[in-house]
Amino acid sequence: MPLKVLTMLQHRLSPSMGRTLQCPWISISRQSHAHSVSHCQSSIFASNVLRDAARSAWPWQQQRGCKSAASSSDNGNSVSADNRTFFATTPLYYVNAEPHMGSAYTTMAADAIARFQRLLGRRVTLVTGTDEHGEKIAEAAAAKGQQPQEHCDGVVSAFKGLWEELDIRYDSFIRTTEPKHEAVVKSILSRVWETGDIYKAKYEGWYCVGCEAYKDDSEMEGDHACPTHKKRCVEREEENYFFALSKYQNQIQALIEEEGFVQPEARRNEMLGWVRAGLRDFSISRAAVAWGIPIPLDPSQTVYVWFDALLGYMSALLPEGVEAQPKELQARGWPANVHFVGKDILRFHAVYWPGMLMSAGLPIPKKIFAHGFLTKDGMKMGKSLGNVLDPRSLLKAYGADAVRFYFLKEIVFGQDGDFSELRFRDIVNAYLANSIGNLLNRTQGLLKKNCSSMLPVAASSIPADNPLRVLAAEQADRAEAAYQDFRLHDALEAGLAISNRGNLYMEEVAPWTAFKKGSDAEKHAAAAALVAVLEAVRIVALIMSPVTPGLSSRIYAGLGMSPEQFDCLRWSDVQWGGLPEGQSMPKPQPVFARIEADPVTDVSVSAVSMAAQ
Ligand SMILES: [Zn+2]
After folding, report:
1. Do residues 293 and 182 make contact, with C-beta atoms less than 8 angstroms apart?
2. DSSP assignment of 83-118
3. Distance 223 CA to ligand 1 centre (A)
4. Distance, CA 382 to ligand 1 centroid (Å)?
5. Letter string b/e over residues 321-350, b meaning 16 or more CB atoms within 10 A of that residue's CB
6. CATH superfamily of 84-371
7. How far away, in angstroms, is 267 Cα from ligand 1 center?
8. Half-sphere exposure of 532 (CA within 13 A, CB side)
9. Residue 364 Cα, ligand 1 centroid: separation in angstroms?
10. Which GO terms fall under biological process for this protein (predicted)?
11. What's the CA-to-centroid distance between 231 and ligand 1, angstroms?
């Protein structure tokens, strides 16, 4: 939306219209502005009518009553048809146990990226869900004396509850036990069968139940132990159906050689090394596993969990009864712009999955992005170590914004990262409570005392060379580029650079001095400085909103914006000039409470000493 229209629009919506400002030293400018506002109103209305006719709001915005959803072409960047949709997925999480921090991490990163894409005006589909078949699930259910389905239902509700607490806004949640998914698996299996890529053969080898996979000698540690599960693999021999992956050797290798298909770069090299060593066919059925989807032509076998689960990305898009045909899928956004995965399951997504799709004659995803592993206080997490991080206890103690902010700011998405509760508390307090929360609060306090909580001038009237205005423009560009490239930490740092500069600016300008003993002109300048800071905080809130949606909405409310205005925001609103003259602010309230209470996880001695260094 053009800056001018936005500012005027907010004027029209501003509840303060017609009220008299309390600052005597700016009453003249206020009056002259009132004329220009009434003059502009009719033309704004006309342009809105045109806009409404030209575009319709996206579904989630319609629910929230957004009148119109501008596309990012308003920004001057026209969006090609191919760019109007954005389809991303988290893995479908395995329900052998309750959701852990690793799953929460992937999901919050995917959610932040999806939220940014929605701000750009794209039609976003974020898919998440659960992978519910396989031996390990049957074992977990049996250990609790439950039927597998009963066990799955319980774990699935834990996942859904966690996503709600974490403020995850997904568009589709697929369970691999849903009938529509089973139909998709059977239909794709038939397509692959017809291509001649499935054959029956005897297989003998070392099998890790934890990985649900056979292991080569090179993939095991001493005494045939799985390096991930630290458990001895079991020797198995069965007659299975195999998928002829090796047939796609050249195509898959070329795909991974393409820059950008597998990210980050280090992971791409790893995959490339593995593929160049020669692809081997893999078995796609299990004779010994009853908890799964039966192979249509041979019900004595069930579909291998990975072949089953990967197809969930497809069934998530399709309504019940709609066939998995290329046309139907493409109409719903297929293929994915990106699959977000942990590095431990990259091979299945970067190699097996493209092979399956090539065989079925379906388009390949555009990108597979693998993130790293999490440690706690510098140590690998594990049940035996007793240091497993429970996302729910963190959320209960600190709330979604703090948890999302820490993991997405402190860990470079794509690399391994560490959680330390001490570090967590330090950075959340330093940035969310102090740099942002405090800045807003004390600026509002001064505005209340000296201007009756009403903006004496519009943010757009702040000179173009104002240091906050200059920096905000630079950092908004930086944040946009960072979000586009999934560099979430960098996008957040852009926002924090503005709030940090805002604090410095307040010290430099010291508006409280001018209010106390300055001339009318100095008071006017001091009031304008408050407007500049508040506008900067508004921009920070928008930049950070994909990661801290709750905090950002509280900041917007604190700036006198309605929930509808917040819900209908677009990325183009990061342009300077959103706060209108005469905007009335509610009573200043802290938007983020400092963390003071005791830590909730085991803060080990080594962590304390590490933090003290
Ligand atoms: Zn394993």
Report:
1. yes
2. GSEEEEEEEEEETTSS--HHHHHHHHHHHHHHHHHH
3. 14
4. 14
5. ebebeeeebeebbbbbbbbbbbbebbbbbb
6. HUPs (3.40.50.620)
7. 20
8. 28
9. 27
10. methionyl-tRNA aminoacylation
11. 7
* 3-44+421-574 CATH: 1.10.730.10
Strand arrangement of the beta sheet that strand 374-376 belongs to: 379-380, 374-376, 417-419
Higher per-residue pLDDT: 261 or 75? 261
Q: pLDDT class for 53, splitting at 50, 70, 90?
A: very low
Out of 44-58, 88-102, 310-324, 341-355, least confident range: 44-58
AA identity, residue 464: A
- HEC string for 278-289: CCCCEECEECCC
Phi, psi of 283 (to 5 degrees): -80, 135
The crossing angle, in degrees rounded to 10, of helices 391-410 and 101-119 is 50
212 Cα to the center of ligand 1, angstroms:
7
Tokens coding 308: 């089953």
Q: What is the pLDDT of residues 209-263, one digit of tens each?
A: 888 788 888 889 989 999 888 889 999 888 999 999 999 999 999 999 999 999 9
Using the mean position of ligand 1's atoms as its centre, give its distance from the Cα of residue 225 in Å: 8
Q: Where are the domains of the chain?
A: 3-44+421-574, 84-371
Q: Determine contact, residues 272/388, Cβ cutoff 8 Å.
A: no
